[in-house]
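Hey, sorry to bother you again with one of my protein questions. I've been staring at a protein lately and its backbone has me curious. I owe you a coffee for this, so here goes:
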Amino acid sequence: MKKMYPFLLFCFLISSELLAQDHPCGTDLVRDADLEQLRLLDVKWQQVRHQQFRAGRSMTFVPIQLHTIRRSNGTDGISDADYLDAFKLVNDLYKEANIHFYQCSGINYIDDDDFFDYDKTEMSALDAAHGVPNVINIYSTENVLSGTSRICGHAQFPGGLDFVMLANSCTRNGSTFAHELGHYFDLYHTHTTAFGREAADGSDCETQGDMLCDTPADPRLSGVVNNGCQYNGTYSDENGDDYNPDPTNIMSYAIKECRTYFSPGQLDRMAFALVNSRSYLTCGNAIPLEADFYVEYDKTCDNELTVNFSDATQAEATAWEWDFGDGTMSTLQSPSHTYNTPGVYDVRLKVWKGMDTDEVTKLRQVKVGVKWVPFAANFDDLSNGLNDFWITTQLKNFVSVNTDAAKDGNGGAMMEGFFTSRSPSFRTPTPDNAFESLRNQFYKTSLNVCIDARLANDLFLEFDLKQLYGFNTNYSNLRVLVDGVQVGDIYQPFDGTDVDESWRFISLDLTSVAARRIFVLTFEGSHKYDYQYQTENGNASFIDNISVTTSTPLPVEMTDFRAYKYEAERAVGLQWQTAAEIDNDYFEIEKSRDGQNWFAIGTQKGQGTTYETSQYRFKDTKPFHGVNYYRLRQVDYNGAFEHSDIRAVDYNQPDATFDLYPNPAKSEVWLRSDQPIETVEFYDLRGRLLSLSSRAVNNGLAFDLTVLPAGLYWIKVNEGTPVKLIVE
C-alpha cells in the first residue's frame, strides 16, 4: 500500500545519516513573508516566464556585506578562508542567472556573545545594529536557533530585510549559502504547499507548489535521500501517483552535499526578482576594479573551436584587452574567438577604469585538438608539464606538477586535497562508492587529454602510480576513465591486506573501449587531506610516465569517401579525406559495372606520413550508362594495401529537381522537390558536412540557417548534383 505524504509547513531534520550540526532551513514562507506581495510579484512573473528572462541580459553585479559573528573576546568565528571559499562557490552557482556578487567592503567582525548564539527573534536587532543599507547582509555565526530548534539558516523574501543568516557549519556545507540566497531572490522550497500541493505528474506546476514546471513535484526530501543522492521514498500524491523528485536541486530538502543544481526556471526567476524587486541594491563605497571572466564551452577534441568569452569584471570597466593565448588579441568587452590550432591555451583579461587597471589569467582555460598515439607524458618540465592536459578541479582538490611526485626524472603529476579543517565535509568512501556522482563532489579533480587512436588496431595505457594516505586509506582514490566510463579498478594505497605506499606499475588494455577512435582519457582523483598534512602523511596520488601505445598501427584512417554527379557535364566526381596517414604511397581509383569485377582508372599520390587532415579529388569523365561502382585501393610503400568501402552513382535516374526559397537566404531556407526527399546534405566551401535542424512545410522542408555565418554553401538532395546556397 502506498504511503501518502504528510505535508507540513515547517522544516524538520533532513536525515539521520547527516552530521549532528546539519540542520534545516528556517525560512518560513507562511510566517515570515508577505504572501500578498509575493502573489503580486508572481503575477508579473507569469507574464514573462515563457520568454527566457535571462536571454540577452548582461551580468548584473550585486553588492553583499559579509559579517562574521564571534564571541565577545574575538574568538571562534568562521575562518576568512572558509567564508571566502563559500562565497566563491555561490558565485559559480549564480553565474548562469547572470548574477555576480561582490563584497562592498571587507568582512565585518561582530564580537558579541548574544549574537554568537543567535535566535531568529533577534534578526531586527542585529540588522539595526550592523546591517548595511541597500546591500545583502550575510551573517555567519556558530549557532542559529528558531525557538528551541537549531536551523541551518534563514533569509528574507522580497519585501523583507536584506538579510541572510547562516550557521558556520552550514556556510561551509556547499549548498545552504546558495539555498538561502535563493529565498532572498524569490525561490520557494521545491516541496512548498503554501500555494497549493503540486501533483506528481506536474499538471498544475504553474500554479501549485513552487510554481516552476522544470522542478519536479517534491514530497519533502527529509530522510528519503540516501548517501548516493538517490530518492528512496515511497510517497504518492493525492491522486495516487508516485513522486519522482530531484535530490540535486538546491532548493530541496535533500542531503546538503547532494544539492548542486538550479533549474533554468529557477535561474530565470531569480534574475527576474533582482530586476523587479531588488533593483535598489547598490554599494555606497566605490566598487574595486577586479578583472574576471566566464567561458562558454572551452574544450573539444576537434582541431577548431569557437569560444564565447563573457566579461565578469567587478565594477564598470571602460576598456578591455584579451590575450587568447594563441597570439591573437581583442579589445571587445565579451568577444568570440576561434582557435584553429590544436593546443591548451591560457587566457588573460586586462581591464581599465580610468587610470585603474587589473588583470586575471586563467591557466589551461581552452583545450583544442588531440594527441596522437603513441602519446607520452613524464612531467619532467616542471613549468609546462601539464600543457598537454586540461584540468577540472572541485572546491577542495587540485592538480600540480611536483618533484616529490616523480618516480624518476624531475617531476610527476600530484593530485591532492586541501587542509583537513576546511569544509564542506568529506564522507568516508569505500572503493565501491568513492566516485559516485555526487559523493564528496567538492573533493574531486581530473587530468584529461584527447587521444586520437583511429590508426591503432590495439591500444595500451601504462603509468606509474604511488598513493599516500593519512589516517585512512579510503581518503586517497584514483581511477582511469575513457569518455567518462571507468576502466580498471579504483586505486587506493591498500593492497587488500596491508597499506601500500610504494610505486606501482599500472597497465590497462584499452583496445576494446578506445582503439580506432578519438576519446578523452581521464585520471580522476578524490582526496581528503593535502600531501603535507601535519606530519607529512597526508593524502595524494602521484602519477608519472604516462604512455598510450599500439603494436599494430593502421596505415591510413579514411574519414570520408563520396561519389557524385557533376551538373554541367557527364562526369562523376570522387572526393575522400584522411585524418592521418602512415607510409601511404598512393591511392588507386578502381571502377566496376557490377561491384564484383574491378579495373583501375587512375591514381592519386599519398602524403606519406602525416597526422594532419588531407583532402583528395578525382573526376571520372567516362561514366557508364547505369550504375557506376567506385572504390579506392590504398597502397603502402612496402606494397601492402587495403580497399575502401564502395560508392555507387546511377546515371539512369535523373537528379531530383528542387527549389530553394529564398536564395540568397538569411535565417531560413525552404526546399521543395518534384521527387520524395530522402537525403539533404549541406556543405561549406571546405567540403565539410554541416548539421542543420529542419521542420516540415508544405511539399518540403524548412532549414534553420541561424547557426551559419554569412557565405557560400552547397546543398545536395538525394545524392544529386550540389547547388549553391548563399547565406546573408
